[in-house]
Known about the structure:
The protein is α+β, with helices and mostly antiparallel strands. It has 9 helices and 14 strands.
Amino acid sequence: xxxxxxxxxxxxxxxxxxxxxxxxxxxxxxxxxxxxxxxxxxxxxxxxxxxxxxxxxxxxxxxxxxxxxxxxxxxxxxxxxxxxxxxxxxxxxxxxxxxxxxxxxxxxxxxxxxxxxxxxxxxxxxxxxxxxxxxxxxxxxxxxxxxxxxxxxxxxxxxxxxxxxxxxxxxxxxxxxxxxxxxxxxxxxxxxxxxxxxxxxxxxxxxxxxxxxxxxxxxxxxxxxxxxxxxxxxxxxxxxxxxxxxxxxxxxxxxxxxxxxxxxxxxxxxxxxxxxxxxxxxxxxxxxxxxxxxxxxxxxxxxxxxxxxxxxxxxxxxxxxxxxxxxxxxxxxxxxxxxxxxxxxxxxxxxxxxxxxxx
Length: 359
């Protein structure tokens, strides 16, 4: 006899309710129970109720009082101290920052507003503010000073070491020149690896030597620096710019480089000085420092190099480990290490010259 199997009747769910798992409702039920217990505990104790009421009333009052104090005259900025401004727009930078600072308080310093105040002055790279309660504010400015004059299609503009265009107002005859294909608007950055490399080299130059740079260009030996006294310096590329400048200073400070027409610092640990045809390099052990008339470019560069000599020995030694820190000019090293051997190198910018390479 066959048995019929009846399907179980479907479970009815009351309208307005949704099926839920007991595992999901259990944490919610527990939290609600704790909340009810906490409220009941607070209501059952009079002192606690009073304390909670006082906190609820005091919070808005304290918040409003703090907002009022931040903008009150009790903490307004009255003394503004600005540090780090030395460029041509120093007065304009000071005025813009001072005006912006006087609208603030020492409890509400808006660095963004300070940056916006000097945004039209591309000389400013960064601004940092330190409040001195109750009325003082110290503003520290980081400048990006011009290092060269960019010339393109007859247009000239000042450029910073990082490639930011500073505008024609900062063009000065004391700045070296670099060439480019176009001049971006002030505040924008120049393009081209060669131009950026030239600016990076100028930015790394010691201030005293940078004054005597006439121009930087891409030559047959790579990045080339032309000094105002006619000396040519081969950098090759923008790598190790500081070490190359210090290597140049060491060679200039050595009396054996007197009369050189070019100096090759492409390898800063092994600089080479080149001399015009028919000019013999002086012996470093017997040569005397040339007595140039005071005020000439040659004597000025030599004196600047002498000032940098102490810094050169330490910094070049650390940047090129393993090299003797006391190596002077290239001619002296060649004479002491390889007697009787001379090398020649003809620079492309001048007539054939003789040179000596350092070891």
